[in-house]
Amino acid sequence: MQNLGIAITGSGSAVPTAFLDNQALTALVETSDEWISTRTGIRQRRLANPGESLTDLAVAASRQAIAMAQINPQDLDLILLATSTPDDLFGTACRIQAALGATSAVAFDLTAACSGFVFGLVTAAQYIRTGVYQNVLLIGADILSRWVDWQDRGTCVLFGDGAGAVVMQANETDGLLGFELRSDGTQNNCLNLAYKASNLDLTQGISVGKGSFMPISMNGKEVYRFAVQKVPEVIDKALFRASLCVDEIDWLLLHQANQRILDAVADRMNIPKDKVLSNLANYGNTSAASIPLALDEAVRQGKIKPSDIIAASGFGAGLTWGAAIFRWSR
Questions:
Q1: How large is the average pLDDT for residues 207-211?
Q2: CDD domains from the xrefs (predicted)?
């Protein structure tokens, strides 16, 4: 059989027009632009308005990726949406499929929080490598502002909203050079968006939980420690599977969580700063959207060139983390 490899042939991104800068946050919590920027590298974040949906952002990013890949929505076989903040708890990928007019595509959601795009990339590749599907649309999108406690300065300064997408196609040579995925549920309490139930009495002796969710909670020190330790390890393992050394990668593309994490990982791996892609100053932490958002921006700015090798790593709630080494194909 031929065409059992994957090529990433298109990218796109979308963010809300409204932004909240650090100075504006000082009206909500006790903080300052200096405090936020020196500890996180973030200067502003984009926020979806109440009428703006995850579907809207995902569709806009997807249309850009499909156009760059020079295919039609009807050519898609699979739409995979990585998100933790769906418009519908039953799933949002099907809404995106309908909005795009991708009538031949099966669609479903995948939830792995800030690791979602990397997990989705590996998942989508398996469908292509086995010959089941030829054209896959992978989307990473989140509207975290829906679930932020805007009185908690430890979290409200971090998160923003956005979407990014890529088109992956069957190819004679394989652009996914190596990967490694990991999970550790024993540390789940470090970062979560937890279910909260209130009791609802139905009849005598029978009660159910009426569902809602708590705001995002995070142990920032533990998450930082986890990321700085685990991310270099998982990238090293993915590079080993790709039979590459760190000097052979053109770009380091990490989940855009905190500039100090990006700097620490690059330092530990002896990767020069000019090889590290970073745009979180303008967007904050957009969870599953952060890697494809930064990828698309770098592609459209002309930084990433055809055949460049990218080491991408996502990390976050679960706890989950993973790395994928891939070649940009367009």
A1: 90
A2: KAS_III
Average pLDDT over residues 18-47: 95
pLDDT in tens, 295-320: 999 999 999 999 999 999 999 999 99
Please name the helix (run of DSSP H) or strand (run of DSSP E) that holds residue 271, with its range, or none: none
d(CA 225, CA 236): 18
Residue with tokens 């469908």: 127
Q: Residue 26: how many CA atoms within 13 Å on its side-chain side?
A: 10
Q: At what angle do helices 290-300 and 54-69 cross, to 10 degrees?
A: 40
Positive or negative, the Cα torsion across 287, 59, 276, 161?
negative
Catalytic residues, by residue number, are: 114, 255, 285
Q: What's the CATH number for 178-186+217-328?
A: 3.40.47.10
d(CA 294, CA 253): 8
Coil, helix or strand at residue 139: strand
Q: Would you place residue 3 in the very low, low, confident or very high pLDDT band (cuts 50, 70, 90)?
A: low
Residues 6+ apart with CB under 8 A from 55: 87, 92, 95, 96, 99
- Alpha helices of 101-211 — where are they, by DSSP H? 116-129, 153-156
Please count the residues of the chain: 330
- Check whether 271 has a pLDDT greater than 90: yes
- Start-end ranges of CATH 3.40.47.10 in the chain? 5-175, 178-186+217-328
Q: Which residues pair with 323 in a beta bridge?
A: 180, 313
Q: Which CATH number is associated with domain 5-175?
A: 3.40.47.10
Residues 159-181: pLDDT tens digits? 999 999 999 999 999 999 999 99
The mean predicted confidence, pLDDT, of the chain is 96
pTM equals 0.95
Q: Hey, what amino acid is at 50?
A: P
Stated as kind and residue range, the H or E segment containing 300 is helix 290-300
Q: What is the pLDDT of residue 2?
A: 59
